[in-house]
Design a protein that fits this description.
Blueprint lengths: L10 E6 L7 H14 L4 E6 L11 H17 L8 E4 L5 H10 L4 H5 L2 H9 L6 H16 L4 E3 L5 H17 L8 E3 L34 H9 L16 H14 L3 H7 L5 H26 L3 H30 L4
The structure holds tryptophanyl-5'AMP (TYM).
Tryptophanyl-5'AMP (TYM) binds next to β1, α1 and α6.
């Protein structure tokens, strides 16, 4: 704050889509940091419901998942009084900007997206255009709010890179319009793997597989999943490329306790696997149990939740329209 000028806070935007059941991976990879960012940054967080229909989903599941995720974001610490928290589909500007940006996105660059390739292979019967266009909608989410920082897990960095390419292309075709956003991943926990297959990402849509710890699992279920976590035939608790199960558990412990994998290795150098797995489970329960309690309280009153959605959308709408109008004018639309 020099010469009496008020320094503008940097803007943060992130979102999560309401498919499946939110996991410890979502929590450690990004959600756990969102609440705390509001002190330093100007924050917007969204439930990316438009993104959820690129894979087949039942209407009742979309509705319930959306409310659950919205309440869960508040339960993990996102304060709707300090941040703008809203449902993506409540702000029509997201779909509008997506269409406009489609025309500044190259087919070839969208085709290179790893997630598109993976999802196409997983559900070859439903490789729809929405699935292909998904990263462009994500770019619209970010660029609408002129976000400087996009906190995400590692798997979304490629999409943020594409967003930067689109912004760059638009800015140089017309004139500076969009802020160039930067993806930000945490030091530990940017990629959490499944407890039953430590080569695969821990995912929301993996049913009740014991490999995924869900944020809303009960303490008993969480402990059971950690105790059954796949390890190896060695006995030393240390990180190494041929000990992916143990490395993943060390990463989870580090991300839960704010430490590093190295500090976790030192803490457990004299432990056996069983004692180590129990401690990681307990650390997860200690973090997730208060979240579950807060969540249950919030879900007792859906009307209140809908009110919060409405006021969040109104605030987001104002900011989004400002950017969108600028974009329409630059392209040459009559306004
Ligand atoms: P989604 O809903 O798949 O995941 C939400 C966030 O959780 C992170 N994440 C993980 N982090 C660590 N380990 C894991 N196993 C793990 N699984 C998921 C993701 O990286 C993500 O940060 N397209 C996005 C949602 C979105 C978005 C946006 C994000 C829509 N618009 C704009 C940022 C900015 C997605 O599907 O995330």
């Amino acid at each position: 704050m020099e010469n009496g000028q008020i320094e503008k806070k940097k803007r943060v935007f992130s979102a999560i889509k309401p498919t499946g059941n939110p996991t410890l991976g979502n929590y450690l990879g990004t959600m756990q940091y969102w609440g705390g960012m509001a002190d330093e940054y100007d924050c917007l967080f969204s439930v990316a419901d438009l993104h959820a229909i690129t894979v087949a989903i039942e209407p009742k599941d979309l509705r319930e998942n959306s409310k659950r995720l919205f309440a869960l974001l508040i339960a993990v610490g996102v304060d709707p009084e300090k941040c703008i928290l809203f449902m993506q589909s409540h702000v029509a500007a997201h779909s509008e900007l997506c269409w406009l940006l489609n025309n500044y996105t190259m087919f070839g660059e969208a085709r290179r997206m790893t997630q598109f390739k993976e999802k196409s292979e997983k559900a070859p019967e439903n490789v729809n255009v929405g699935l292909f266009d998904y990263p462009v909608l994500m770019a619209a989410d970010i660029l609408l709010y002129q976000a400087d920082i996009v906190p995400v897990g590692e798997d979304q960095l490629q999409h943020v890179e594409l967003c930067r390419n689109i912004a760059q292309r638009f800015n140089s075709r017309y004139s500076p319009t969009f802020v160039m956003p930067e993806g930000k991943v945490p030091k530990s926990g940017a990629r959490i793997y499944s407890l039953s297959d430590p080569t695969a990402k821990m995912g929301k849509s993996d049913g009740n597989d014991i490999g995924s710890v869900f944020i809303l699992d009960t303490p008993e279920v969480i402990m059971k999943k950690f105790k059954r976590a796949v390890t190896d035939s060695d006995t030393r608790v240390c990180a190494s490329p041929d000990k992916q199960g143990i490395t993943n558990l060390l990463t989870i412990y580090a991300a839960l306790t704010g430490g590093t994998v190295e500090s976790a290795e030192r803490e457990f150098e004299n432990s056996d696997y069983a004692a180590f797995k129990t401690r990681v489970g307990e650390a997860a329960v200690a973090r997730l149990e208060p979240v579950r309690t807060a969540y249950e309280r919030l879900r007792r009153n859906d009307a209140e939740l809908l009110d919060i959605m409405k006021s969040g959308a109104a605030k987001a709408e104002r900011l989004a329209r400002r950017t969108l109008e600028k974009v329409y004018k630059k392209i040459g639309f009559v306004r």
